[in-house]
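Data availability (excerpt). All sequences and predicted token strings are deposited with the supplementary files. A representative entry, Membrane protein, is shown inline so that the format can be inspected without opening the archive.
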Amino acid sequence: MKYGTGVALVLMAGVLWSVQGLLIRQIDVAGTWTVLFWRSLGMIPVLLTFIAARSGGRVIGPIRSVGMVGVLGGLGLVLAFSGAIYALQATTVAMAVFLFSASPFFSAVLGRVFLGESVRGTTWGAIALAVVGIGLMVREGFALGAMAGNIAALISALGFSLFTLALRWGKLADMIPAVALGGMFSMVAGAAIALATGQMLVPPVSDILYAVGMGAISLVGGMVLYTLGSRVIPAAELTLFSLIEVMLAPIWVWLLMGETTGAGTLWGGAVLMVAVMINALSGLRLRRMMPAQV
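Structure token line:
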């Protein structure tokens, strides 16, 4: 695969991911756990088909091969998926997606604490800057009564970080089987908690279609494109290209639904985006310098 093709696939993935907030806004009745159940139900067939296509028709073997690492990563995705759905329902799309982008910084800190991975000085500086941006957004969320949505967004970012940490701990090169486990766990958790809390498990057909489409097309479709494109793109560049999701998500709901956000969210999000870009560009520069040092 050529580099340009990989870039196009990753950018298309970001576009698909960016419409999730818009799709969530179309759901009228279903609660967080009901949406989690149906979105996960939409994810699983697509993931299993992709796994089978890459492994000569085998599905069980690749999923079993991820072992306990995949199970732990899948449990992290339950937090990530449920937190994201609740955040998108409880606060503005802009605030939610900006806070989601803090995940790489959680991953850096957790990797240092649990795996003993070194953290570059630039990354520590970017983390400090990210904390400032998060603080600005959380303060506005508190003032607007959307604190629960802010917390859920940060829990989602933490869940993705736990998923990443599990993959690094187990040195898994292929994340898709672990994502399939996360979809299965999320479907079970969504059904169980929805029933336990009195949420209807079978909402109107329109809600089901939006949730299933969000899982099968927006979330997993983007993940498949991202996985394919990532084979020819350095990790730091992937981080930069994936920011298209963060930039587009608020635009869709503004253009199509008139949803706006506060100045605190925009300023905080801008600071957080600068932190992400500084960290990614630093990583890219370090990677380009490494061959010259060998």
